[in-house]
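Structure in, sequence out. Go:
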């Protein structure tokens, strides 16, 4: 069987990880999180490609472009989690299994972060484990796809 290909998407402001509210999001940079993910992907024998964007349309386009190219998507939609019907609809249209991850526990935070537009179209959500949320999310997605 050929290697599973996973697309990792990071939403707005996640390019500033490391300096962005470290008391909430930790001190790891996006680059070091991606390094962790690459190591885990190697261990799981899957291939990953990563993309960060601050623009909703770029994220929507990248979900469309993933059709027939990627078997799964791991996404931290950032603030678009709580606002984006467009990203949710893109997942519903693409029908590619998706796992939603968050560094912080969104349910312990402000009320407006308690609702996710993405969760209903995702296989599942992992929230609150810092950089480990990404690693756990990748493991869960790969387990799901290999089942
Ligand atoms: C986040 C949580 C969101 O509420 C926030 O807007 C982010 C990051 C997280 O990883 O904890 O940008 O997705």
């Amino acid at each position: 069987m050929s290697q599973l290909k996973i697309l990792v998407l990071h939403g707005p402001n996640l390019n500033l990880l490391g300096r962005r509210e470290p008391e909430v999001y930790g001190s790891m940079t996006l680059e070091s999180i991606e390094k962790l993910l690459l190591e885990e992907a190697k261990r799981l024998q899957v291939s990953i490609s990563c993309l960060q964007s601050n623009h909703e349309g770029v994220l929507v386009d990248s979900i469309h472009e993933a059709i027939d190219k990627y078997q799964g998507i791991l996404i931290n939609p950032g603030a678009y989690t709580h606002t984006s019907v467009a990203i949710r609809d893109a997942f519903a249209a693409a029908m590619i299994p998706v796992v939603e991850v968050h560094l912080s526990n969104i349910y312990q935070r402000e009320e407006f972060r308690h609702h996710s537009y993405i969760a209903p179209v995702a296989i599942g959500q992992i929230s609150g484990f810092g950089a480990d949320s990404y690693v756990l999310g990748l493991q869960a997605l790969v387990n799901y796809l290999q089942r």
